[in-house]
Amino acid sequence: MNLLRILIFVAVSGVISQVQADGNPVDKVYHPFVTANERKVEWRFASRQTDDKNVLAQRFSYGQAVSEYLIIEAYISAQRDTSDDFGLQGYELEARYMLTDQGQYWADWGVLFEFEKQHDEGNYEITTGVLFEKEFTHTSLTMNALLVYEWGDTVKKEYETELRLQYRYRFMPEVQPAIEIYTGEDFVGIGPAFMGVHRYEGIKQLKWELAFISGLNGKSKDHTLRFALEYEF
Question: The whole model's pTM is what?
Answer without folding.
Answer: 0.86
